[in-house]
Each structure stands twice: as structure tokens, then as C-alpha cells.
């Protein structure tokens, strides 16, 4: 065991935990008006307090929004390339601090250390793309209707943006909101998920070190109802970038609509891998299994349904089973693990409930699913990854987002049937299709009702490509890539007569 333990992470934790962190408002670390804090525990060691965070209130929200509103006046006038230079420095700092950030990320979220490192480096890549975008805030020049009139369009930053993130990607999600906001000249009030506020503290320190002026990015921790609600309702907040569950996304959108402010919503998924034909089932399983079980299946783009044509089903299921058995569950700091605990006990119970419902409704549990709670597993919310077979479209496990390490296998009659099953859910985030037939791949790309489609490829996205969903998986401009300009800026049509 010792040889597979990352001792550096454990030693680093020993000397960096149990501190108390303030909110970051107008460039200063401040305690909340409520005077109350909440403890954050290690996801893989429920006895270890990582730190104490502010239980903020509406008063703190108000201060943070006022600071961001005030800072907007000057930040929005900083030339784009200069803002970009600051974001480039931030990307460099993310890389230089990747080790420490990964320790914090794995400790609070639970994912394997290698995954955390990958997340931090991905955040740096996305930040760099945004840094470049700050020099490409383009408008159009059109011919005037009259000889002495020029007609053009320009883009201007919308103002203060509320950024609200979930707990599954605590580093990349805030960076995905803050970096484009900075690039386009907006200012930010950011609320992390209560389950993962620790890495955000480090992000604020790095932003400050990069040269982001005071008040431009503000951070407030606290519960969704006490902080999130006043933040999204605040009259000075001009846009809401929210990543989280669909139910909450809809509520936020309703409130935003009343004030006519913009939203960018990244919501849940029920992502299919449609398998039509293959020469080697193992190759397909090697693509599907990591895309289903990375981050313990707690990814919005996790593959959760394998929809396979019936004459290929047995061979593929055997290959999936074999691949799944290679997943080793354990705490993040053990170097040979591939899957950490779930975020917490309550979420584990919810995933277990789905598994039971699936079995009650007639699905067959082919592998795993059991809760692990002895020895070191007693200190976190662990379960074995699960493979459910004979899942049919009307079952709950086939339509609802489980957000855990459960992969459902569904049989399709043929290509048409597979497409119908893939599209039969309320979500439309990402989908994969596996086939060597060009026409089948093309048809799937055309007809799948999703925001992101992958041919012969798991559901991994790229750091410069628009990212978002259809149906109940998203709303507003896609995040990542150049589509962000539609959320973070307003369009202005300009006429000059001379
Ligand atoms: P969640 O429960 O919807 O919470 C998301 C964030 O909203 C948290 O910061 C939460 O704060 C906050 N919040 C709670 N109540 C609020 C309110 N009334 N007003 C404003 N904010 C409020 O989601 P989660 O459980 O953290 O994350 C899992 C979900 O996120 C899944 O459905 C997953 O698919 C989705 N997700 C989507 C994407 C994507 O890009 N499409 C990416 C990742 C995750 P507290 O933590 O304090 O409750
Ligand atoms: Mg939640």
C-alpha cells in the first residue's frame, strides 16, 4: 500500500488544513455579517476538516455586487489585449500551481489525483483561449444606406455577471465562467458549491496575483438559498452563468426572465453511446468505460446509456464487463486508483436508490453496485461501479440523470430504433455513436437531439469548442469557445453621419 500512496499530498494536507477563509470582496478577505462559518470535510476522510468557510448572507451579496458594479466602470474600459495579458498570466499561474490545486481539488471533491491534475491543466487551456478572445471582440462594418453614413456593429460587456458552480468540477467550472467574463470586460460575483469552496480560495489568490484589479472578481461562499437567491435577484446583476441541475436552472431562468437579464445555463444530461457496428468490441469498451466512470460518473457529460443493436449486444456487454473490472476504487491520494468516492453520503444514497429502482423495474445487475464501507472505505461515500443490463426506455434509470457510477445497457432493433431511444429522453447534452459506416454516422450527427456529438469518440470535449446542451440540458449561449461572446456582451448598432 505504501508504495502506491502519494505521500506528498498527505503531507501537504497535514500542514495546510483547518484554516478559516473569508469571502473575497473588493480585493479583501472579509468575514460574513452573519459571523457564522461552516466546516468542509475531506471527501475521502470524513474526520478531516479541510477548512472553514463563510455562511454568507444577503448583506454580503449586496457588498460583493456593489463592488463588482463599481469595478465594472474601469475594467470595461481596459483595452481587450491588456485584459488578455492578465488572463494569460492567470493561465500560467494555474499551471505553476497545478500540484497544490490538485491536492486541494482531490481532497474536497474526492476524484483521483491524476484527474484533478488534468482538470487544472484543462482550466489553464480554457483560460488561454479566453485570453486570446479578449483581442477578438469583433463587430461588423456594413455599407451605409446613404453616402455620408457608415453603419457598423460593436460588442460591449453586459456588466456584473453572477457565476454559480456545482461541485463536480470545482476548478474548471469557475474558470470557464470567470475567464471569458474578464476577457469581454465583465465583472463577476462568484458562488461555489457548498461542497467544494476550497480550491476557489486559491483561484482568487491566483487571479489577484495575475493583476486582476480589486472588485473585478468577487467570491462569496454559503448556501444556495441564502446566497444564490439574492445574487440572481440582485438588480445590478446583468447576467447569470449557472452550471447545475435542470430543476434549479429552470427556476433561475424564470427569475431572470422577470428582470429580462441573460442566462447561460449548463444543466444535466443522460448521454447515450449508440453502438451500431464494430470489429473489436474491446476498443469500443475502452472508449465508453472511462467516459462513463471518470469523476465517479458525476460529470454532466458522463455516458450513462449504452444503446447497442441486438446482434452486437452480447459481445459488447462482455467487453464492457471486462473493462469495468479494471476500475479500482479508493481514496484520491492512492496512486493506483481510478475511481474515488462520491461527493457525499446523501448523494451515494440517491445513486443507490436509482440502482434499486432499476432492479425492481426489471433491469439485471451484471456487475458491481455494492456500497463499500469497511476499512478505509468507511471514511467516504464509496461504491463499486455498476453495469445494469436489460434496461428499457420506460425505466427511471433510462430517463433520469443518476449522476453516479452506473452504466445502463439497452438493446435496439436497428439503427433507427437506436436513434429513437437515444432521443427519447428529456435531456440533450452529449452523445457518442460508434460505427464504421459513414452514412450511419452522418445520420446520427444530423438527427441526434444534443448539443455535442462524438463519432467513434467518448464524450470528452475540447478547450476551444463551444460546450452546451439542447432540451433540458442547457439554455443560452454555449460556454467555452467563441460562442461565449453572445452571453457576455450586448450588441450595439452604430451609425455615423459625416
Ligand atoms: P445544484 O444542486 O443545481 O447546485 C448548483 C449550484 O447552485 C450550487 O452552487 C448551489 O449551491 C447553487 N444553488 C442552490 N440553490 C440555489 C438557489 N436557490 N439559487 C441560486 N443558486 C442555488 O447542482 P449540484 O448538485 O451542485 O451539481 C450537479 C448537477 O450539475 C447535475 O445535474 C449535473 O448534470 C449538473 N452539471 C451540469 C454541467 C454542464 O455543463 N451541463 C456541468 C456540471 C454539472 P449549494 O451548493 O450551496 O447548494
Ligand atoms: Mg445539489
Automatic annotation (TrEMBL):
InterPro entries the UniProt entry points to: Ald_DH/histidinol_DH, Ald_DH_C, Ald_DH_CS_GLU, Ald_DH_N, Aldehyde_DH_dom
Q: Which Pfam families match?
A: Aldedh
Gene3D superfamilies found in the cross-reference section: Aldehyde Dehydrogenase, Chain A, domain 1 (3.40.605.10), Aldehyde Dehydrogenase, Chain A, domain 2 (3.40.309.10)
Query: Which branch of life, at top level?
Result: Bacteria
SUPFAM superfamilies, A to Z: ALDH-like
User: What residue stretches are annotated with the Aldehyde dehydrogenase domain?
Assistant: 34-494
Q: What's in the keyword line of the UniProt record?
A: Oxidoreductase
What are the positions of the active site?
Answer: 266
Q: Which GO terms describe its molecular function?
A: oxidoreductase activity, acting on the aldehyde or oxo group of donors, NAD or NADP as acceptor
Record flagged with keyword Oxidoreductase: yes
Is Oxidoreductase one of the keywords UniProt gives this record? yes
> Which ranges form a coiled coil?
none
The family classification in the record reads: Belongs to the aldehyde dehydrogenase family.
Can you name this protein? Answer: Aldehyde dehydrogenase
Please report the organism this UniProt entry assigns to the protein: Bacillus infantis NRRL B-14911
Taxonomic lineage of this organism?
Answer: Bacteria, Bacillati, Bacillota, Bacilli, Bacillales
Amino acid at each position: 500500500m505504501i508504495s502506491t500512496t502519494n505521500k506528498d499530498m498527505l503531507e501537504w494536507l497535514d500542514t495546510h488544513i483547518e484554516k478559516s477563509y473569508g469571502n473575497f470582496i473588493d480585493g479583501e478577505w472579509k468575514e460574513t455579517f452573519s459571523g457564522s462559518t461552516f466546516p468542509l470535510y475531506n471527501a475521502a476522510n470524513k474526520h478531516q476538516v479541510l477548512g472553514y468557510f463563510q455562511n454568507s448572507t444577503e448583506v454580503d451579496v449586496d457588498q460583493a455586487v456593489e463592488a463588482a458594479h463599481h469595478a465594472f466602470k474601469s475594467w470595461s474600459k481596459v483595452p481587450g489585449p491588456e485584459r488578455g495579458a492578465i488572463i494569460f498570466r492567470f493561465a500560467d499561474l494555474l499551471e505553476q500551481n497545478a500540484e497544490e490545486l490538485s491536492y486541494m481539488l482531490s481532497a474536497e471533491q474526492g476524484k483521483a489525483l491524476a484527474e484533478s491534475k488534468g482538470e487544472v491543466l484543462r482550466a489553464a487551456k480554457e483560460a488561454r483561449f479566453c485570453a486570446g478572445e479578449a483581442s477578438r471582440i469583433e463587430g461588423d462594418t456594413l455599407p451605409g444606406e446613404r453616402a455620408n453614413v457608415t453603419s457598423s456593429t460593436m460588442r460591449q460587456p453586459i456588466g456584473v455577471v453572477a457565476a454559480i458552480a456545482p461541485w463536480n468540477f470545482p476548478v474548471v467550472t469557475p474558470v470557464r465562467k470567470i475567464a471569458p467574463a474578464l476577457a469581454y470586460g465583465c465583472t463577476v460575483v462568484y458562488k461555489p458549491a457548498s461542497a467544494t469552496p476550497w480550491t476557489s480560495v486559491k483561484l482568487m489568490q491566483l487571479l489577484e496575483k495575475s493583476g486582476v484589479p480589486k472588485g473585478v472578481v468577487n467570491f462569496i461562499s454559503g448556501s444556495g438559498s441564502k446566497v444564490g437567491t439574492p445574487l440572481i435577484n440582485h438588480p445590478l446583476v446583468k447576467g447569470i452563468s449557472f452550471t447545475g441541475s435542470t430543476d434549479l436552472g429552470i427556476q433561475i431562468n424564470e427569475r431572470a426572465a422577470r428582470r429580462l437579464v441573460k442566462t447561460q445555463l449548463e444543466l444535466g444530461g443522460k448521454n447515450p453511446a449508440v453502438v451500431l457496428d464494430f470489429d473489436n468490441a474491446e476498443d469500443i469498451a475502452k472508449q465508453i468505460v472511462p467516459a462513463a466512470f471518470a469523476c465517479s460518473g458525476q460529470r454532466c457529460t458522463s455516458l450513462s446509456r449504452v444503446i447497442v443493436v441486438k446482434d452486437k449486444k452480447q459481445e459488447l456487454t462482455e467487453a464492457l464487463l471486462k473493462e469495468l473490472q479494471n476500475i479500482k476504487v479508493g481514496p484520491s491520494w492512492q496512486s493506483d486508483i481510478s475511481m474515488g468516492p462520491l461527493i457525499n453520503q446523501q448523494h451515494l444514497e440517491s445513486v443507490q436508490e436509482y440502482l434499486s429502482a432499476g432492479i425492481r423495474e426489471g433491469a439485471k445487475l451484471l456487475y458491481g453496485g455494492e456500497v463499500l464501507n469497511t476499512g478505509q472505505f468507511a471514511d467516504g461515500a464509496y461504491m463499486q461501479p455498476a453495469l445494469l443490463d436489460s434496461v428499457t426506455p420506460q425505466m427511471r434509470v433510462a430517463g433520469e440523470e443518476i449522476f453516479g457510477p452506473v452504466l445502463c445497457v439497452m438493446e435496439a432493433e436497428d439503427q433507427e430504433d437506436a436513434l429513437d431511444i437515444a432521443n427519447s429522453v428529456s435531456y440533450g447534452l452529449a452523445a457518442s455513436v460508434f460505427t464504421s459506416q459513414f452514412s450511419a454516422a452522418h445520420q446520427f450527427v444530423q438527427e441526434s437531439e444534443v448539443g455535442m456529438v462524438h463519432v467513434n469518440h467518448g464524450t470528452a470535449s475540447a478547450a476551444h469548442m463551444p460546450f452546451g446542451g439542447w432540451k433540458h440540458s442547457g439554455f443560452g449561449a454555449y460556454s467555452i469557445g467563441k460562442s461565449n461572446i453572445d452571453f457576455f456582451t450586448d450588441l450595439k448598432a452604430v451609425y455615423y453621419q459625416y
